Amino acid sequence: MAELAAAYALTVASEGVPASPDGTADGLDGVPDDALHGTVGSSRGTLEAVLDGVLVTGVTVASDEARAGDLFVAVPGLRAHGARFAAAAVAAGAVAVVTDEVGARALLRAAAGEAGDATVDSDATVDSATDAVPQVPPLPRAVPVLVAADPRALAGELADTVYGRPSDDLVTVAVTGTNGKTTTAYFVDAALRAQHGSVALLGTVEVRLGDVAIESPRTTLEAPALHGVLAAAREQGVAALVTEASSQGIALHRLAGMRFDVVVFTNLQRDHLDYHGTMERYFAAKASIFSPERAARGVVLVDDEWGRRLAAASPIPVATLATHPDDDSAAATAADWRVVSADIGLDGVGSAFVLRGPDGTEHVAHSPLPGLVNVSNAAAAVVAAHEAGVPLAVAIDAVAAATAIPGRMERVVERGQGHALCIVDYAHTPDALVYALEAVRPITPGRLVLVFGSDGDRDQGKRPMLGEIAARLADVLVVTDENPRSEDPAAIRAAILDGVRTLRPDLTDVVEITTSRADALRHAVATTGEGDTVIVTGKGHEPTQEIAGVFHRYNDRFVYLEAVGDPRYRDGRPREVAAGATT
Ligand SMILES: CC(=O)N[C@H]1[C@@H](OP(=O)(O)OP(=O)(O)OC[C@H]2O[C@@H](n3ccc(=O)[nH]c3=O)[C@H](O)[C@@H]2O)O[C@H](CO)[C@@H](O)[C@@H]1O[C@H](C)C(=O)N[C@@H](C)C(=O)N[C@H](CCC(=O)O)C(=O)O
Ligand SMILES: Nc1ncnc2c1ncn2[C@@H]1O[C@H](COP(=O)(O)OP(=O)(O)OP(=O)(O)O)[C@@H](O)[C@H]1O
Predict the structure, then answer these.
(1) Which member of 8, 398, 400, 486 has the lowest number of beta carbons within 10 Å of its beta carbon?
(2) CA of 82 to the centre of ligand 1 (A)
């Protein structure tokens, strides 16, 4: 049993918040049992560690997920100090708190009945450097409060120890990059399943453990949740895990405590600059998992300059992969693995390609999704799975047979019986929209109809760019809403239409639907026929649409199916849900 305070050099805050004498957590009310780690499977009972004399059986950074026996890690957040929520976490069952010095002082003051620093708004960012102490509620029970220099960085390490180092017992793969993380992770999942049977898959779409899946709260889980899932996976005999690694997740230490067998870098394109500030910092976040602490080895696509830089500077061994057959650059010709030819299938189902290995042997492989980008994703997955121990032939066959990925070039309605081919795709950046439209053009004998919008409260600059790309590459445009969030949807559509007008000043074959996204899709389906293709972009798998602070249940897929007369759907939802729904 690990003694956490000694192992991680944690100091006890002071006598002011005394340690619980027996470490029990009895008599607790309101402990939520639907917390994430409970939903996907729980390993409680077998996992334990001791912190300052108290038995700890779980770890969390979120008070609303705290359960009996948890260690609550109170991090100084971007908006508030986690110490503010320590009382709620303890009330819900947490038996100890790890925080920074500012948080500990705030809790000690609260315990002594003293007010915090009146100048510090407890909702605001806390600057540890100023030593300002926020006002926080006192803990409802005496529990140990321990101090760490950087609790956010430590949360994953603590969870790894508390859950008994579960990642040591699984084959683990992480996929990072601006685009293609989800698709590549699904392809890796297929290859790992072919070899190991049961696999855990974590990412934007879902958290899946074996055959049990829940909607994913974020692309990269909080570190304690990640280690909790790993522990549950180990308990259930799941042999391997693949996760997407978002740049925010990496920067916020959500992968702390992990050492992956293989990390994969797909590409870097302009995105998330609101968070990272510059491309250099965005790149640095992604590159940081290519370190001996985080991974044994890597697979790097050298199709762009960022990948070439990463491969050249990586402190861990990497296999390089070039996936653009036309690329004759020195980096491509020198790559360990290379896609030397690709036959982008005109049936829209996928593509065949030839992958040359480090020994010069050529292997015929397939991407089950259309377009060159998915040749890149499929090749990345084959090489990553192989680096993770899957025989090459097994990886190639499994990726070729991978089933549809929710919301990624997903063919919801096949062409026929008077209906257009109806596709859902998650493209929400200018680059991705170009790739998506170019991929469906060759499989469209008739008109290519694009239904799209753009997110509110996100990068405004891309709206006219999306409009211009749509006007250039699609025949008919149906402009509608995505997730307007707090913005005026009409203003977002107007910015898109500004871009459309640069190529189509008279808005020829452009329709603006102001009532709802569902109406826009219905319109597209009703006005198309068998030779046409309708593609709706931007929301992919998303199960909700966010409008003015309200998350309405919504999925493009359901609307398509209803629009072509599938009796299982009504009002854009499965019939049984529609019957009882209010929003
Ligand atoms: C911008 C950002 O990344 N924020 C992350 C950050 O939040 P924060 O520092 O603002 O937290 P805060 O609100 O100040 O709260 C401080 C602490 O108190 C805790 N708290 C807060 C309120 C409460 O009632 N109880 C409680 O315990 C919080 O969990 C946190 O630990 O630290 C929190 C805890 O570690 C994260 O949950 C949170 O991610 C939020 C939810 C988020 O949505 N992040 C997005 C940007 C994100 O990570 N996205 C990527 C994908 C991006 C992409 O590819 O498009 C992802 O991996 O999902
Ligand atoms: N390798 C790639 N390069 C460029 N674009 C891609 C690539 N793979 C997929 N895309 C496009 O980007 C969209 C998102 O793909 P995917 O979900 O696999 O990426 P992601 O990295 O998980 O994205 P996000 O971080 O936004 O969730 C797809 O719908 C497709 O249009």
Answers:
(1) 486
(2) 11
Q: How many CB atoms lie within 10 A of CB 531?
A: 12
- 74 vs 81: CA distance, rounded Å: 7
Q: Which segments of 418-543 are extended strands (E)?
A: 421-425, 448-452, 476-479, 510-512, 533-537
For 304-314, the pLDDT digits (tens) are: 999 999 999 99
- Residue 288 to residues 300, 386, 501, 565, Cα–Cα distance (Å): 13, 23, 42, 50
Domain architecture of the chain: domains with CATH = 9-159 (3.40.1390.10), 163-400 (3.40.1190.10), 410-580 (3.90.190.20)
Q: Is 537 in the pocket of ligand 2 (CB under 6 A)?
A: no
Closest CA to 283 of 301, 267, 263, 300: 267
Q: What is the mean pLDDT of residues 368-388?
A: 95
Chain centroid to Cα 326, Å, comes to 31
Is the ipTM value over 0.90, yes or no?
yes
The angle, 0 to 180 degrees and rounded to 10, between the axes of the packed helices 372-387 and 430-440 is 110
539 annotated to a ligand binding site: no
Could you tell me the two tokens for 94?
A: 């947490």
CA distance readout (Å), 147 to 56, 108, 353: 16, 12, 54
Ligand 1 binding pocket includes 182 (Cβ within 6 Å): no
Q: Which of 182, 423, 452, 482 to mutate to test the pocket of ligand 2 (most atoms within 8 A of CB)?
A: 182
Q: Is 122 annotated as a binding residue?
A: no
Sign of the C-alpha dihedral computed for residues 85, 91, 94 and 98 taken in this order: positive
The structure's pTM equals: 0.86
